[in-house]
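Input:
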Amino acid sequence: ETGVTQSPTHLIKTRGQQVTLRCSSQSGHNTVSWYQQALGQGPQFIFQYYREEENGRGNFPPRFSGLQFPNYSSELNVNALELDDSALYLCASSLSGTGYEQYFGPGTRLTVT
Amino acid sequence: KQEVTQIPAALSVPEGENLVLNCSFTDSAIYNLQWFRQDPGKGLTSLLLIQSSQREQTSGRLNASLDKSSGRSTLYIAASQPGDSATYLCAVTLGDNNDMRFGAGTRLTVKP
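Output:
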């Protein structure tokens, strides 16, 4: 059984640029959720994808967008980067529906300068 | 609005001690509650998942309880070990948009 993987591990971008982060879900999981974790805080829910459709969204602006592919892998895209976007971005996969355990990847550390 | 609070923010105990971490939430309309462990700069490892209809879950030296009506959960760690040192996070799943709301965590240090 393959766990959740994310790429890249670290990334440095300049304010105003765009970034794409990638996530491969655990084998057999068709739901992917993305979270932003600022230093010293708990993760904050960005959105969830199920069968290639957005299936719930937290309080993040539209410049945070995502995709899910037929193999259930997913991308998080952030446009017009701001300094406050610097954080650890985590993705989690699960079986469909609410109530299933979420399994997290190791995260991507994004630094915006 | 659902708020999740974890107390204490940090805890240091000698090896072998039993300890309790606390999690409280303001809205009892949750689907489930999950406890995670996070090592510095790493992702989250799921420890225990308690469905809203359940009262507790156990895994090895860990026991988590849930009292939905009072908005509380506790994570009990028996016979703590230095390898248990990490940040422990609780999170509740909200049913309306699949939002998982996290506390800020308790940073645990177990001294040899």
